[in-house]
Structure formats: structure tokens, C-alpha cells
Amino acid sequence: LHRDLIALRSSDPALSAPGRTADGSALDGRRLVLRFGANGPHDRLLVVNLGPTFDLASASEPLIAPPAAGPWRVIWHSERPAYGGSGMPPLEPQRWEIPGQSAVLLGAGA
Questions:
Q1: What is the pTM of this model?
Q2: 3-state DSSP of 39-99
Q3: What is the largest CA-CA distance in the chain?
Q4: Separation between Cα atoms, residue 46 and residue 55, nearest integer Å
Q5: Which long-range contacts (CB under 8 A, 24 or more apart) does 30-34 make?
Q6: How high is the pLDDT of residue 42?
Q7: Engineered SS bond to 43: which of 7, 48, 52, 108, CB 3.0-4.6 Å?
Q8: ∠16-19-25 over CA atoms, to 5°?
Q9: Is 12 exposed, middle or buried, given 0-12, 13-18 or 19+ CB atoms closer than 10 A?
């Protein structure tokens, strides 16, 4: 897990760019989002869910809007079986199920 996160931080253009900025918002008392980028091809959305599984698509937060480069896709998530997790369902057009007690990094593009 830690090796994957360090590799992702050093190789991902949105996370490794000098002077990168992020906007964040608490969705509620157990969930937050951080958006890296400015509506471009390297946008990233980090979703941290400290509560039960929820549908991110139902959240009323401008930061979660898909970027111009295309719909969100999963780049990394903490529920990978390799980390001892139970996996994560694919994102659907109208339902983005984020597993409970997890972190998910989404990227722009199909």
C-alpha cells in the first residue's frame, strides 16, 4: 500500500506537479473530497470515506463534477484485495459507490 502510494505521488502528473493546488470540501462529518487540477486531462479527485458505503454521485458538491476531459475513472483505491480489502465495484454513469472506510483516487478520462 505505502509503496503504491509513494509511486503514485511521484509518477502522477496531477500529484507530482510543482506548485500543484487542491480544493477540498467536507461532504459531511465522515466524508471529504480533494480535487487536484483545474478541469483538465490530469484532474484528480481524492474521496475519503470514513463512514459506510455511499453513492458519491448523489452528493451536492461542485468539486465532484466530472472534468471536461471525460468521466471519472478509478486510478487507485484502498479496498484492493492486494491490500486486504474486498474490492470496489466499477463506477456507473449514475452511481458512484464508494466503499465504507476507504479512500479512492479518481482521474479524468474514459
A1: 0.91
A2: CCCCCEEEEEECCCCEEHHHCCCHHHCCCCCCCCEEEEECCCHHHCCCCCCCCECCECEEC
A3: 35
A4: 15
A5: 31/59, 31/98, 33/59, 33/61, 33/63, 33/64
A6: 82
A7: 108
A8: 85
A9: middle
DSSP secondary structure of 8-51: HHHH-HHHHSTT--EEEEEEETTEEEEEESSSSTT-EEEEEE-S
pLDDT by residue, tens only, the chain of 110 residues = 999 999 999 998 888 888 778 999 999 999 999 999 766 778 899 999 999 999 998 899 999 998 887 889 999 999 999 999 999 988 887 889 999 999 999 998 75
Q: 105 is written with which cell numbers?
A: 483516487
First to last CA, the chain: 25
Closest CA to 59 of 29, 23, 108, 96: 96
